[in-house]
């Protein structure tokens, strides 16, 4: 996946660096990306699945008997 | 403070487990040293809302999640697969995380896509595959691959007549999950370990008729009589190894999201709605066709449709309401009358011999103090969940003794299990109590529940 650099206040980055272990993230970038992805997903701006993935999951749920 | 291990066995049924206890030394020991209670599931007793209700202490009405798919809007095509994005109530691991406690989460339905957690998370079976980012942190994927090779989120296609294959697949999946569990509890710091094994659900659906003598398909000569007990013996042995990998004073809770019962058949909800004049198609299909496909193909005549339904382990009925649905015809002032009329008529649907089957129909406001999101207008438990809801159309009948998508022997039942060591003093608990019990173990008060 293509990555782009963004600017984040140094104090926020430092807090993440200081608490990386508690936040269980491998890096500042990973933590920031997961938090942003979650927030955007919950706000409905990005879908949890791609259309292909959603179809794949629906088909599996149908095979499992949850949908008919 | 001691650790707490919450072991979820999806669909584990209290009556079945009591029957099998003499063959399960590890679980039997936990019961002898602790307690065994029935755990009342939520309505509907369906995997996704039930597990996340347990983990948040919040019922499906407040969560706004009523099944694997929920209406995102009032359009006719607005059903969307439920993901972690739908769950805004605080999970038990988020509460613990706020108090500095770490969790290992493995296979819990409703956790894909993974959100950040103080600990590690392996998503449940709704992850599209292991190619997707199904763990938090992402590097955990590589660790999993190094431990178990290809991780199996779920068995592929349990609705098969090839039972020998299914049993092998299930056992392989379960062994890998427990192997991973043993690795996680020894390689990572944790206070709460919570996992869900989905294989118990799959083996019930796939092989219940080979075990339950009361099942209409029970065959005394089946070579698979012992498949379910065998699988539970595997779970018991794996559990023993997992507990050995934990400190001896770990509090252990074994829970399920709902129970299981034999499935007697299916009722074609949309076939019945057509027969009774509630649902009108432009052209009746010449082969079984899903209602969603008929809607997409504009084959539903909404100007003459008051209600339509969705199939699954329970039935969902949606009314076509003026000003709510795009082409609604049930006026808001007639809504209660039509819904009550449907409730009475659906409750009275008999089996093919004319005998009553004990269907129960619920309105959302009867089930929940708060109703969020877009619930179905009616929840239907055909035969009190001994019959499932068949949504496809094109059969020219409403009664089924086989599914439209393959063999399935069992349906869900409202009571699951709660085994606890040390013991809990209740004979019966609600699934909504579990989060509070976990928080109490960690010394967190009622306001944190």
Order of helices and strands of chain A: HHHH
Q: Which class of the largest domain in chain B in CATH terms?
A: Alpha Beta
Total of DSSP H or I helical runs spanning 4+ residues of chain A = 4
Oligomer category: heterodimer
Helix-strand makeup class of chain B: alpha/beta
CATH topology of the largest domain in chain B: Alkaline Phosphatase, subunit A
Sheet of most strands of chain A? none
| CATH architecture title of the largest domain in chain B | 3-Layer(aba) Sandwich
- Rg of chain B (C-alpha, Å): 22 Å
Uncertain stretches of 5 or more adjacent residues of chain B:
none
Dominant shape of chain B: globular
Topology:
The complex is a heterodimer of chains A (68) and B (449).
Chain A: H1 10-18, H2 20-23, H3 28-42, H4 51-64
Chain B: E1 4-9, H1 14-20, H2 25-33, E2 35-40, H3 47-56, H4 60-63, E3 69-71, E4 79-81, H5 92-98, E5 103-108, E6 119-123, E7 135-136, H6 140-148, H7 163-187, E8 192-197, H8 199-207, H9 227-244, E9 251-255, E10 259-262, E11 265-268, H10 269-275, H11 291-296, E12 307-310, E13 315-319, H12 335-347, E14 360-362, H13 364-367, E15 378-381, E16 387-390, E17 399-400, E18 410-413, E19 415-421, E20 428-430, H14 434-441
Parallel strand pairs in B: 1-8, 1-9, 2-20, 5-6, 5-8, 11-16
Antiparallel strand pairs in B: 2-19, 3-4, 6-7, 9-19, 10-18, 11-17, 12-13, 13-15, 14-15
Helix pairs in contact in B: 7-8, 7-9, 8-9
